[in-house]
Design a protein that fits this description.
single chain; about 140 residues; mainly beta; Rieske Iron-sulfur Protein; three-stranded antiparallel beta sheet; 1 helix; elongated; binds FE2/S2 (inorganic) cluster
């Protein structure tokens, strides 16, 4: 898989998101407390723009009448039918065994490393002896 630069870290502050297009795919890039995650901007249920939905917390109810919010601001709620997905894994909490949103690997890399690129020119050692330049090939 090829790497694509989609934003600076400053463009997506904690709690923020940016929707980008990479190779024809809309992808939402999220910053959850300093950890970056990427999710396809297409809900696996009926195709809504998933990454435009509200970022919510997971709600658990261990017994009827008692509930608690867990994993604050780590889920995304689809704007059409309100199915919720884990932003980090794409797992649906409506049908966890059958429905999952596509996720992508995200990394933060220093600009210096990206500017270097993956290619280097071939080099050969050079030495000067007396008045001659000798190239070792
Ligand atoms: S299209 Fe997303 S929940 Fe239906």
């Amino acid at each position: 898989m090829a790497k694509h630069v989609v934003a600076t870290v400053a463009e997506i502050p904690p709690g923020g998101r940016k929707i980008v297009t990479v190779r024809g795919r809309e992808i939402g890039v999220f910053n959850l407390g300093g950890a970056f995650h990427a999710l396809i901007n297409r809900c696996p249920h009926q195709g809504a723009a998933l990454c435009t939905g509200a970022i919510v917390s997971r709600l658990e109810a261990p017994v009827p009448g008692e509930y608690r919010l867990t994993r604050p601001d780590t889920m995304i709620r689809c704007p059409w039918h309100c199915w919720e997905f884990d932003i980090a894994t794409g797992q649906s909490w409506c049908e966890p065994d059958d429905v999952k949103a596509r996720t992508y690997n995200v990394s933060v890399e220093p600009g210096e490393a990206l500017a270097k690129g993956p290619f280097t020119a071939e080099t050969v050692p050079v030495s000067v002896e007396q008045d001659y330049v000798v190239v070792e090939v």
